[in-house]
Write the structure tokens for this entry.
Amino acid sequence: MKVDVLLGLQWGDEGKGKIVDVLAPAYNVIARFQGGPNAGHTLEFEGRKHVLRSIPSGIFHEGIMNVIGNGVALDPLLFKEEAEVLAASGFDLTKRVAISKKAHLILPTHQLLDAAYEASKGEKIGTTGKGIGPTYMDKMGRSGLRVGDLLKDDFMARYEDLKAKHDHIFLSMFYPYYTKTLEAKWHDATDYLKRFEWIDSEHVINHYLKDGKAILAEGAQGTMLDVDFGSYPFVTSSSTICAGCCTGLGVAPRHIGEVYGIFKAYCTRVGSGPFPTELSDSTGETLCRQGYEFGSVTGRKRRCGWIDLVALKYAIMINGVTQLIMTKSDVLDAFDVIKACVAYRIDGKEVMEFPYEINNPIEPIYTELPGWKTPMTGMQSENEFPEEFNAYLSFLEEELELPIKIVSVGPDRAQTIVRN
Ligand code: GDP
Ligand code: IMO
Ligand code: MG
């Protein structure tokens, strides 16, 4: 058996949660391998909407084990809040979610440091404010605390040591802060965390593999937010790419199976940073309105633009994508003309390969295709697809050199069409 991986190919919010939920019944295990509560994965079914942040998107199906892997940054307080909301909706997660002892803890001071760093920057990243950057800085700096450390007798001493280190940073930044109330809640939440199974997830995952269990690794964020290959420094602080699944779960590269690459029929970005196909005009506004493009974590308006094939080809290459999934096709229903960026013009030169520097001006070069002007949300099979939509799919498949196996035509679980 292999571990299949589902990854966002753009700047996040491609609809990963929705599709993981759709694919979940074919798997025994769903595992998150990076990121933390900066993620917001929205799932809709039976007239209800759920937003998941740290919890994998397989939890709404019985009999599936959902693993929070070692590569994840976990805030016990936000985790508790998320799990309690789900428990109130009738989903008791204590038997469905297991947490890696090696997952790093997001401390209250990490969250405050995130705000302090942002406040000190001239050009802000526009983070989600969940403490992601500072937590991964401590992980890489070898001073972080992990879930398993909560069981150690000297945990409080370690906690105070790390907090003292943070205090020095706050002092040097002249950044006043108060954490007492937040800290008390945070420590309570670490007790709540103990209701869940804490595991050596690398062993558990590899045992599952040996036992022939089907595993799906669920990516958070997107390839263009990857710390190495994204639009640095306007990125998140984890490896959002397929390789991140190996380090974030303890899965050897030879055990990676299908790599599902998911993208929107257009493109969005939330937070700052370059976005070559961004539309600051009425077309961008229409995409935002039709796609209801507001962040599920922060409520921020997402920036919108046409699909960027230069960036998509790059993401496909980096991840070794084996099949594609396109979401939000219905959002383009209303357009007379659909545009797709096939190259960049930089300093008068046409560039087809995603360049080192995208912070300087880039002019997107577009191919235009006719819109389908037919509502797609009610469609249930590919036989109903309008001719122009099929032409858009064929164009993308030819450009990206991969099949688009699943098309999503609405936010609901049922609004998903698998192609033959
Ligand atoms: P994720 O972070 O990749 O899981 O994506 P988000 O949940 O943050 O953002 C995707 C948004 O689009 C959510 O509000 C989904 O409910 C919604 N969505 C997903 N697929 C579709 C689709 O095919 N059509 C429409 N209209 N909305 C969709
Ligand atoms: P999902 O999993 C979209 C963006 C932030 C910011 C940058 C760094 O829902 O697709 P961070 O808080 O990670 O330090 O912020 O990354 N960002 C996301 N954008 N979807 C996400 O997750 C994101 N997670 C982080 O807006 O620009
Ligand atoms: Mg999201």
Notes: The longest strand covers residues 337-346.
